[in-house]
Specification:
This protein is an alpha/beta fold. Bound molecules: adenosine monophosphate. Adenosine monophosphate (AMP) binds next to α2 and β5. Belongs to the pantothenate synthetase family.
Length: about 280
Amino acid sequence: MMVFKSKNEVAIKIKALASEDLSIGFVPTMGALHDGHIALMKTAALENDVLAVSIFVNPTQFNNSTDLDKYPRNVGKDIELIYSHFDKEQTIIYTPDVDDVYSDQIIAKHYAYGGLENKMEGASRPGHFDGVGTILEFLFHLFKPARAYFGEKDFQQLQIVKSLREQLALDLEIIGCPISREDSGLARSSRNGRLTDLGWITAAKIYQSLLLAKEMYASGKYDRIQKTVEQTYDKIENLDLEYFTIAREVDLETAPPAEMPQKGLRAFVVAHVDGVRLIDNMKLS
Ligand code: AMP
């Protein structure tokens, strides 16, 4: 069993694997694992010799302490779930406490991601991507993976990580994986566990709103998408829209209707149900 709470133990294991020339596929998570996480791990296990998973609720990427406190944690169950899918001998799990990661102060470093950090999630959650960069820089140096796997559910994060890789000149591949959804279309999320039964049904409307945007986009109704989607949110009780944006995948620059015939656009949404903040997106072209 390779479950480690200490970075020093991980470092020793990684050194041993490197001496055998074994490649590591790394999946960083904050735990409360679901099928979306498992899908990332399956790809990582398939494409590498060893699967490495970190489970750590990183305090510096939360700008809201209530959100941090309420973030679901169940490491025991997470470990069981991982080992029900993957070979114990080929799977490393790192579940540190905060002081193993942040020995002195719990603060983030600053990163410039070429402006990506100021849009959408960056604007809504100040400092969030500094926290993401800080933990990933630490984890990438610790695990030295050949490849690291990220979900397109957090599409902006995926672009941020690619920028981080460039900035730090890291020798690893960043791989984006498709969004895993419930039958209702709701994007799987650790936060979904905090929804009420009715909230689950309401939250599926987020997916519906993205489908609507995609449909309108396909039929060229560019100048009406934003308003129509916003209006659908106004009509649904207990579903509060934080933002809906159509932006270019490459730089996350908002696309005005005149630019919409371009390729490489995606619709991005954040909405709140039962006080739970939910994020989703969908490729339009
Ligand atoms: P988290 O534990 O929420 O920090 O997520 C860890 C990784 O899993 C991130 O790369 C997420 O983008 C990815 N992930 C979370 N939910 C999903 C999902 N429904 N589909 C695909 N990837 C996901």
